[in-house]
Q: What sequence folds into this?
DNA sequence: TCCTGCAATTGAGGCTGATCAATTATCCAA
DNA sequence: TTGGATAATTGATCAGCCTCAATTGCAGGA
């Protein structure tokens, strides 16, 4: 799954061993033809007409909105096997390739006829829409009620759980995005992200040789943090007990 | 539209002068029969089976999730004329009546046949789903990147814009929900909400005789704040200029 | 080779908003 | 009327995260 690129950013891709993860989609496209995107390339902008749905074959995509004054909010990431562009009306947010990506496009016409004719396909679309909605509520919770440590732990364990779902080791994760993307996703600054990585490292929660590869040494405590159950030291947090 | 109740919480309702706002829905229900709910009554819980869609005829509904330790996140509010319960799968969040409510229910069976047969209806559903999605991204932005003043200004101008859309005065808004609901919605504490109301009042941005009725005296500056364009004093904020 | 630009890290200090605590007002039941 | 519960407000204090600044490392181009 993992291929290290020249620019040191790990590119995550679907392997040939997972044909079932893409077949439902490729049945309805032009022979699974792919479009290649460079890192940081804009895929579409907020307000653009929605004219295709894409399956990510490799790489990572980042969705974001920007305020007038330049403040940016990353609303989510999408990974290989995810469909992007679901929804109705014009695009609600910008989509950008975090790293070089391969996208398999499907026209809206094909998409709608596939929805109507292919139950497996429409089920997949339905399932992903539900996951996205649930994820956005989860994300609201992270942003309103969690500390910096809890947020980063939540982010890391999320990547770990994704690995487990796909049959890879949950004990190490690749971080394809830059610190600034993580910061804008978690509602923090890059400095806080960096500092929290460092405290995790000194507390023995993670190991990190370069900014893109993280070993989750103490996954249980990270998961507990992500659930808001204890602080970085492993103690049950005081303010949390009072709230309970 | 506005009826003050015994418990001093203003109950917002649809008037008879807006039949068009409900007709599209009532065509498909049992003569527009309504269910009455008391204040603070649970409508459904997270995980419940989705077995009906409702139109709010009067009152306000609040959606929220609760962490294991009791921390609560309000993900949104719904007002008269809104449909609640749209989506697929089990409910993703709790729904509670902020105040006494009148809901007009529609079974999922009627809902699906209405979607299939009535273009105006399916357009309304589509439109509201889009509004909700856009609103949730907007909300993410508010929670990650805005100060307390900006968040509250955003909340107030949102209510004001809703008034304008419905043909009422945008210069005063009724606050049907408690401070704690606003706080959990904006990711702040009730104390901060209260303090920010007070500073708005002393700065001449708003007038407030009781906690439920707010006069938006300087709507432009509130709107600018809500957009993140300036601070409470009306000056362009320093940190914002740098980011631009 | 140097130079530039970008990404990440680390440190110092300050500010915003949370926490804890006390007070007031209202409503309702006894 | 009194007492209790709920909601809102205000004050004092403190900590977590942001801001500003400096440094390091790496990649690519001149």
A:
């Amino acid at each position: 799954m993992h291929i290290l690129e020249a620019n040191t950013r790990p590119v995550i891709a679907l392997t040939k061993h997972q044909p079932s993860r893409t077949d439902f989609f490729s049945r309805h496209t032009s022979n699974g033809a792919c479009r290649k995107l460079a890192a940081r390339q804009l895929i579409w902008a907020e307000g653009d007409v929605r004219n295709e749905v894409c399956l990510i074959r490799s790489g990572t995509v980042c969705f974001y909105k920007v305020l007038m004054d330049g403040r940016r909010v990353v609303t989510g990431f999408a990974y290989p096997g995810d469909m992007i562009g679901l929804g109705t009306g014009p695009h609600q947010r910008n989509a950008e390739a975090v790293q070089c990506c391969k996208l398999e496009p499907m026209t809206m016409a094909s998409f709608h006829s596939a929805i109507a004719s292919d139950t497996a396909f429409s089920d997949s679309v339905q399932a992903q829409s539900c996951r996205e909605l649930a994820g956005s509520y989860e994300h609201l919770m992270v942003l309103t009620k969690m500390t910096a440590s809890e947020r980063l732990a939540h982010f890391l364990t999320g990547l770990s759980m994704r690995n487990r779902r796909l049959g890879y080791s949950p004990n190490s994760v690749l971080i394809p995005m830059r610190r600034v993307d993580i910061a804008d996703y978690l509602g923090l600054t890059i400095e806080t992200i960096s500092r929290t990585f460092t405290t995790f490292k000194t507390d023995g929660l993670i190991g990190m040789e370069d900014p893109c590869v993280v070993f989750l040494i103490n996954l249980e405590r990270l998961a507990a943090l992500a659930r808001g159950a204890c602080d970085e030291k492993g103690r049950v947090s005081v303010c949390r007990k009072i709230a309970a």
